[in-house]
Write a structure and sequence with these properties.
Layout: H1 29-40, H2 43-53, E1 59-67, E2 71-78, E3 83-89, H3 94-97, H4 105-122, E4 130-134, E5 145-149, E6 154-155, H5 170-189, E7 196-201, E8 206-210, H6 223-248, H7 256-272, E9 282-285, E10 293-295, E11 301-304, E12 310-313, H8 315-318, H9 339-370, H10 384-397, H11 400-416, E13 441-450, E14 453-465, E15 470-471, E16 477-479, E17 486-493
Antiparallel strand pairs: 1-2, 2-3, 3-5, 4-5, 6-10, 7-8, 7-12, 9-12, 10-11, 13-14, 14-17, 15-16, 16-17
Length: about 500
């Protein structure tokens, strides 16, 4: 698009809102990473490449930038007034975030570029046009990057509403939610026979399903295979967190940090039921929300960004409400007593109901337009299956208090369905020490309680060992990393005791 004239255009849109280094203190780890990264990139090489892609039209790479968790963006301005966006992948800040993504940066960037191309070619979902992708770190510029269309908008998450928990005026908030519901339905309507991330074959020009960013594995043929991989990845992530906490000399992980994936596996067969036999899968964006949507002054969605987490997925993954959009209910069985939280949930209730109606209307429009019956997201958005998935996805980013709420929520679902028993509670035991030595092992039992009799479900066996990294698909064992001192995690079923 043409570069905006910031003297006449709305000053609170696009690159005019970028704060660069000013958004952090000098001692902040984000500040230090950005400063070092900016100094290592060959900006003249980047400008030269952009110019060559447009038949030699001169351009400059601006000084202003914006930065998120993984990417830094700068505006590229051509002599003829055209604007591009350079989005560069930064090294992971593991000491803050941990190793969140299972894929290497080159694979993640390739999946994101492929997803943007797919949406442009096969849907009405607005995304920036992709002009060039470089996934290798060892390139003349100095980092993996995507050159894409510049979209002059602002993140919807930055437009706080007149009422708490909304965006803009009530009318603007409704307009935004309707569009988000339509995007959910559009993604779900794209059908595939495998579960995984979108990949593009430059030689054949075809899209296919392969490894996904969340697990670093795939494609998967069944929901059970996929959810097994997600649970295994959660164990890997928690072990990584333990290593980082040791470096920062903070407290060890609690056994509770490993409990939720265990409970998910226990509940999955009964709660998902026939959904485990799905053979076709729609698209879901695991990071879809107001923080990744660009809008204009009228709250029209201009583009969806940060698309590396789009996957073809089982039905209850498709039914997840947009993140950070104030559409989440309390965890199952939770009786909130905090006055502020009670008030928030009270305000959110009618808004959530309206969003479900919007999804239902969007599915009706989709059926009228193409004659293909949609999967029925509106009827399962807050089903036990959808809540089970939400708890698993919230687990990684949640605090200890939030994880305990989800553990109790899972046990509430189990009791309601009589999967285990009624009145179940988790027995919180000692802190789980993963150990440091090559032969250190600590085994902890996950238990439930019924009428003062403890029912043993499974144990968590975490150890450190020498050897290569491996994972056995469909099993309960994952070995993490390569070389000496790396971690392994097992979920070991207990035999019945007399």
């Amino acid at each position: 698009m043409e570069c905006p004239n910031e003297t006449t255009d709305q000053p609170l849109l696009g690159s005019a809102t970028w704060k660069g280094l000013d958004q952090w203190n000098e001692g902040d780890e984000f500040y230090q990473r950005a400063r070092i990264f900016l100094s290592t990139i060959k900006w003249k090489e980047l400008a030269s490449l952009c110019s060559s892609l447009r038949n030699g039209i001169p351009c400059i790479v601006g000084d202003k930038f914006s930065m998120g968790q993984s990417n830094l963006v700068k505006q590229v301005t051509f002599e003829d007034g055209t604007c591009w966006l350079a989005r560069l992948r930064m090294p992971e800040l593991e000491i803050v975030f941990g190793r969140r993504e299972a894929c290497t940066p080159d694979v993640t960037l390739g999946i994101e570029a492929s997803t943007m191309k797919f949406f442009s070619a096969h849907t009405r979902i607005p995304v920036p046009n992709v002009y060039y992708t470089e996934t290798e770190s060892s390139n003349p510029v100095g980092a993996p990057f995507i050159l894409m269309e510049y979209i002059h908008g602002i993140l919807a998450s930055d437009m706080e509403g007149l009422e708490r928990g909304t965006f803009g005026t009530p009318e603007q908030d409704t307009h935004l939610l309707k569009q988000m519901a339509d995007l959910m339905v559009q993604m779900a309507a794209c059908r595939f026979d495998k579960i995984g991330g979108i990949h593009y074959d430059e030689k054949t020009g075809e899209f296919n399903i392969g490894v996904d960013v969340e697990t670093g594995r795939g494609p998967f043929s069944t929901p059970k295979e996929y959810f097994q991989a997600v649970c295994d990845r959660e164990f890997e992530f928690q072990v990584d967190r333990h290593v980082l906490r040791q470096r920062k000399m903070t407290k060890n992980l609690s056994k509770m940090d490993f409990m939720l994936p265990l409970l998910f596996k226990e509940l999955m067969p009964a709660i998902f039921d026939a959904e485990l036999d799905e053979t076709t899968f729609g698209l879901a964006n695991l990071d879809f929300g107001v923080h990744n949507i660009l809008i204009d002054e009228q709250y029209n969605i201009l583009a969806v960004i940060d698309l590396a987490d789009v996957i073809s997925a089982p039905l209850h993954v498709l039914a997840q409400v947009p993140r950070m959009s104030n559409l989440e209910r309390s965890t199952p069985g939770d009786l909130e007593i905090n006055p502020f939280a009670v008030e928030r949930l009270k305000r959110a209730g009618p808004r959530i109901d309206r969003f479900i109606d919007m999804v239902k209307d969007a599915e009706g429009r989709a059926f009228a337009e193409n004659g293909v019956r949609p999967p029925g997201l509106a009827t399962i958005i807050y089903s036990d299956g959808a809540e089970l998935v939400r708890g698993l996805f919230d687990h990684r980013n949640g605090s200890e208090r939030m994880n305990m709420r989800w553990i109790n929520g899972f046990m509430h679902m189990a009791a309601k369905r009589r999967i285990l028993s009624s009145g179940l509670s988790i027995k919180k035991q000692d802190v789980l020490d993963l150990g440091d030595g090559p032969s250190a092992t600590k085994k902890e039992e996950a238990t439930t309680r019924r009428d003062n009799n403890e029912i043993k479900l499974q144990t968590v066996d975490i150890s450190t060992s020498k050897g290569d990294s491996k994972g056995t698909e469909g099993s309960n064992e994952v070995e993490l990393g390569a070389g000496k001192g790396k971690k392994s995690a097992k979920i070991v079923p207990l035999e019945n005791e007399n």
